[in-house]
Amino acid sequence: MKSSASPSSLPAISVTQTDDRVQTTTDSVAESDTDPCEEQTANIWNWGALGVFGSTFSTIFLAEMGDKTQLATLLMSAESQSPWTVFAGASAALIATSLIGILVGRWLAKFLTPKTLNVSAGILLLCISVALFWEILNS
Amino acid sequence: MNWELIGLSFITVFLAEMGDKSQLAAIALGGCSKSPRAVFFGSVTALILASFLGVLIGGQMAAFLPAQALKAIAAIGFAILGVRLLWGQFGSSNN
Predict the structure, then answer these.
(1) Rounded to two decimals, what is the model's pTM?
(2) Among candidates A58, A74, A77, which has minimal Cα distance to A66?
(3) How many domains does chain B have?
(4) Same domain for B53 and B83?
(5) Which of A55, A87, A130 sits opposite B51 (nearest CB)?
(6) Contact of A136 with B75, CB cutoff 8 Å
(7) Under an 8 A CB cutoff, do A94 and B92 touch?
């Protein structure tokens, strides 16, 4: 039953897959065209900013799940019996470190050309990726 | 409000996160993005949600969470962001 049905369904699946692939490649090309920071758009809250928000959120969130900061937070909240106080302190610290990170990035951007900045940012992100894989292999 | 405990957790998390990969990612993404505000809010939301889940789930975290798999997805995500940035520089200059 299954084997007789699969030949007829296969072409249809492959056609939709290629359609999807074409769609996604054109999407990513359009995104990468708007990505470099050469031109400042007047409207910050467009889909580009939402995409930046989404990719930043998802990567950092997944990287931090089960990471040492999260473990320290849950350890402290378990020991102290007042988890929300610990949560408040940890949140303030995370806001501060994020803000410092962004400000350092913007500060560096003043001294570097957009090209140098993008290339070093790309290399830094690849290094983070390698470091994460390294953590997985060594744990 | 227990200010000592708030201060302790602030200092612990602050020192743990300074120079850590999330902050390096914030530096990289914030420096080259045209919307650093979106990077800031994305980073803050992710970090606070992660620590919120840490507090909420507590000791059962290890049982719940395929942390290795999530880290692998994050690593691939960072790699894609990095390659996209580099591609935007070297890929577009060839055209």
Answers:
(1) 0.73
(2) A74
(3) 2
(4) no
(5) A87
(6) yes
(7) no
ipTM confidence score: 0.85
Residue A67 has, within 13 A of its CA and on its CB side, a CA count of 25
Q: What is the mean pLDDT of residues A55-80?
A: 86
* Residue of chain B whose Cα is closest to the Cα of A68: B16
CA B15 to chain centre: 15
Q: Which domain holds residue B51?
A: 1-59
Q: Do B5 and B48 fall within a single domain?
A: yes
Q: B42 and B87 share a domain? A: no
Q: Is the Cβ–Cβ distance between A65 and B46 less than 8 Å?
A: no
Residues B10 and B53 in one domain: yes
Instruction: Quick: pLDDT tens for A98-125.
Output: 999 999 999 999 999 988 999 999 999 9
Secondary structure of residue B69 in the 3-state scheme: helix
Residues B53 and B17 in one domain: yes
